[in-house]
Design a protein that fits this description.
Length: 122
């Protein structure tokens, strides 16, 4: 009986993890929204549109003028995976030296995880 309860608790925790959660810490995106949007009706901002970024080609917003470094990454076939986004957010210049991303690196892993949760949502 005890193991059944533990198994049920574990399954409930997994269902409420970021991968299965219906919502994320939306505040994680607050500092990004000056330059980026998460909805198509937000119009063009100074940075590229981030709707559906996970799985999209790097430099994949056709209405944005990307740095030569990101254009080269797109030409190489780079795609935004969760891992690549995490690496980029932790230090954009280390991943793509010379990119025009103006915000400072996000060194805190929890803050990046919260942001990635928001970016993973449709």
């Amino acid at each position: 009986m005890r193991y059944g309860f533990l198994a049920a608790a574990w399954l409930a925790a997994c269902a409420s993890s970021p991968a299965g959660a219906a919502d994320c810490n939306r505040q994680a995106f607050a500092s990004c929204q000056a330059c980026h949007a998460l909805t198509t009706d937000a119009g063009q901002k100074p940075g590229p549109q981030l709707v559906g970024i996970a799985g999209r080609p790097v430099a994949g917003d056709p209405s944005f003028d990307y740095s030569p470094q990101l254009q080269a990454a797109r030409a190489n076939g780079d795609r935004w995976t969760r891992e690549r986004l995490d690496t980029f957010l932790s230090d954009p210049q280390a991943l793509y030296p010379g990119t025009w991303m103006g915000s400072p690196p996000i060194r805190d892993a929890k803050q990046r995880a919260d942001l990635l949760c928001v970016l993973d949502r449709p």
